[in-house]
Write a structure and sequence with these properties.
CATH architecture of chain B: Orthogonal Bundle
Order of helices and strands of chain A: HHHHHHHHHHHHHH
Mean pLDDT of chain B: 85
CATH class of chain B: Mainly Alpha
Number of domains of chain B: 1
Oligomer: heterodimer
Number of strands of chain A: 0
Largest sheet of chain A: none
Radius of gyration of chain B: 21 Å
Order of helices and strands of chain B: HHHHHHEEEHHHHEHHHHH
CATH topology of chain B: ABC transporter involved in vitamin B12 uptake, BtuC
Radius of gyration of chain A: 21 Å
Largest interface: A-B, 51 and 49 residues
Number of helices of chain A: 14
Strand order of the largest sheet of chain B: 1-4
Number of helices of chain B: 15
Chain lengths: ~325, ~350
Amino acid sequence: MPDKFLFAMEVMLNGLMAGVLYSLVALGFVLIFKASGIFNYAQGVMALFAALTLVGIKDGQIPFAHLINAIFGTNIHHFGWHLPAFVAIIFTVIVMIGFAWLVQRFIFRHLVNQEPIILFMATIGLAYFLEGVGDLMWGSDIKKLDVGIPKGMNETIELLTYNRFGYGFFIDNLDIFATFLAVILVTVLVGFSQYTKQGRALRAVADDHQAALSVGISLGYIWVLVWSIAGVVALVAGTVWGAKSGVQFSLSLIALKALPVLMLGGFTSIPGAIVGGLIIGVGEKLFEFLVGPMIGGATENWFAYVLALVFLVFRPQGLFGERIIERV
Amino acid sequence: MLYREAGDFSTSYTADSQTFPIRFDRYRYYFILVVAFLVIPFFVNDYWANAILVPFLIYSIAAIGLNILTGYCGQVSLGTGGFMAVGAYSFYKLMTAFPEISIMLHVLLSGCITAAVVTLFGLPSLRIKGFYLAVATLAAQFFLVWMFNKVPWFYNYSMTGMIGSPERTVLGIVVTGPNTDAWAKYFVCLIFVTLCGIIARNLTRGSVGRKWMAIRDMDIAAEIIGVNPLKAKLSAFAVSGFFIGIAGALYFGVFLGAVEVTEAFGIEKSFMVLFMIIIGGLGSIFGSFAGAAFMVLLPVLLKNVFVGGLGWPTDLAAHLYFVIAGGLIIMFLILEPHGLAQLWRLAKEKLRLWPFPH
């Protein structure tokens, strides 16, 4: 087989893996949008915040140390413990659930029945707020996140492909791990929403708020629940991305990458988020590989958006989105 | 006592349909113009011009532009940074290609070029709406910034990839380049702000503005009563682009002087202008000014209080800025979704009745 074709295949496989990560972030968006009609721009910052909290708790950092030092002239920074990853993850999940409750109690409870665009802007404000709080709490330096996820080239795949094609494919163990994680997460989420009482309530709320209220489902509870789930999804996404490239500000920008994924897949569809993520991942890697060198490279910055834009002009509701019916 | 319609009789249709029908409002407006044109230029120093006044004026133009698109026509745009970059780069190309023509004309021309580009990116708005459109404008943001980085023609093949404004004069006074006086920068921006304010105010209260607002409130209903959505939406994009282009040109040429595109016109700029119009008030020209003033003053104030007053490290003040800006946006959306402009409107209502309670 020609080399170029093999390279392209390797690029495509890596794109698929990157796509899985995009899907993970997009999933959080879809969950909240379905249940409450809120387009949560803060999802990326939530991932950053979750990853920062995980690192902070694991390494025993004192929250707001920088601020406390500035106010009281002290010089504190660490509690001096190192927790195992498992315990730190449990604590972080608790923090994310607390965060979900705060968001619900102090922001969105007051914004019920507002226009969707107002809610969207509120989440942009929330993103800024959370970004500042995250930096204040844990400091803005780049942190290493190590929770025992395998990293580096997968040798089995390299060996197999080398024997088969005479060219070893480079695939990161981390990406394979992330794929498994995503599959598990989606299975659990689908199972949750199909087979449990809370899941059924969640779908009822997504369908019709008023009808759900009239059969005795508490909207406030469901919204806290769904924000908590989104928080956990953000934690997973943040952990995987953080392990890949360090926990830093740029992590919150993956939210921007997830937006075209959502547009492709449709805002209301979980399978859409997955398929959209894969298409975007493969598309941008292949485009960069094939066309990028001709027009100066770094096309990954915009390709996803332009692809989604062109696609939307022909199908405004996305691949799997519900049909838009407009009435006066 | 002062703020009354009583005793203010209109004797012609022109007088009846003027911008500020209440006498006190009219005099306040003239007073502000006189202070801005005839008093401030004599007292302004470098710090005030560069830290507060010039950015305030330039952001006001950008905010008016975005407010026309988002506040009046209801099309949310997250591409403001990229569109400002179009204005800046077309200004740069025009300035270097035709040095003999006045730069005042170049600023207007770059506004027109930006209007054309923005209209192009506004075309999908005929098919897609709401969030989908907001995300689609991100395509413009990222693509434009990438293009200005990668195509050397735009930055005249300079080694650094940056653009810098050469020295140009208007009526013998230096207005661009490193040797510009503070008052000259201020004055140039002021002229354009006044011009844009008057145009925007009159467009939005005329038939065009009413069509935009009809589209914003419900586009299908607007179409049924005879508003052409194609014309209304695209004209909003074009007018908005014109203002944003002017803002971009001034931001690069007069305010900064030298610009690196990802740094100056990144996605943060888009959000900043969006915050301005949310805090100031969607669908209000006064709100654009108020929001711009607020967002320009807030970091300066925080820096003075925390770094200058309390002696905290600068990065802490920067983080606090995020917390406060984000918190304020949420607070405004909850307490006063119509922004500072609404507070101003309420104050005026109260003033009309004062000293009587009802």
